[in-house]
Amino acid sequence: MQAPINATDKRYIRRRKLGRFALIVLNVIAWLIIMFPLIYAFLMAIKPSGELYDPNSVLFPQNPTLSNFVDVFDIAPIGRYIMNSLIVAVSITLLQITTSILAAFAFRFLNFKGKGIIYGLILSTMMIPGEAVIISQFLMVSGWGLTDSITVLIIPFIVSAFNIFLCVQALENFPYEIYESAKIDGCSDFRFAFTMVLPLIKPTIGAMAVQSFLAGWNMYMWPLLVTNDDSNRTVQIGISMLNSVDSQSLVLMVAGIVICMIPSLAIFIVGQRNMIKGLTSGAVKG
């Protein structure tokens, strides 16, 4: 038979239950505070334009409607903007992952003169803000005749110093003897990088993918500078063009913003676990 629970144990169990309940309540409150901007944006997106300045529907709309999400596609080519942003973000992600793996492989396993100096110069570029070189980049691509195209949105972001740093750190404890054994067996450097190194740093690749996709998706200054044709504009530029002084354009702009947040939220939710693992891999050494 199970021994009866004394008064001390009952108080301990009661305190643990109360502590768990309080922790849940605090988590819910923190979640509501963090998510309030997104919740408010969605509530505003389903609000009719006539209720935008109605004091009776400051937060919750009295007559919610989903027509704003349909009307925003009729007023502007949002579908084309989203497709352009997806092409740019996915291309930047794949290219940065490829170049980062190859660069990290070279810095970790190959011996060449000036390796430390080159690696230091690459890391030093992280201290230079992008706005400081945006004009020189524009003059360079203008000389190449690549302005107002999807290609010009991708070329300046093929390489990421931060992603190279992540890959080098992930390979820091990788045994060099494995590379020597693979070379003796006739394995090429490219095959070793993509068949043996790549599977071992999947968390780092996940973190790079999330960071690169979000950076490519949220670009604003560079697309604004180099694109003029609607067929080449990204979603961030297209949404900003919906802004006006009337209430109809304001709710439509918010509806467009909500639509454009879906891909970035989805990639972050899917890759957040790998992102955390990738950013913290190598932080604790034993």
TrEMBL record:
Keywords: Cell membrane, Membrane, Transmembrane, Transmembrane helix, Transport. It is found in: Cell membrane. The chain crosses the membrane at residues 21-46, 86-110, 117-138, 150-171, 192-214, 250-271. InterPro entries: MetI-like, MetI-like_sf. PANTHER family: ABC TRANSPORTER PERMEASE PROTEIN MG189-RELATED-RELATED, SN-GLYCEROL-3-PHOSPHATE TRANSPORT SYSTEM PERMEASE PROTEIN UGPE. It is a multi-pass membrane protein. It comes from the Bacteria. Belongs to the binding-protein-dependent transport system permease family. Residues 82-271 form the ABC transmembrane type-1 domain. SUPFAM superfamilies: MetI-like. Its main location: membrane. PROSITE patterns: ABC_TM1. The lineage of its organism: Bacteria, Bacillati, Bacillota, Bacilli, Lactobacillales. It comes from Ruoffia tabacinasalis. This is Carbohydrate ABC transporter permease.
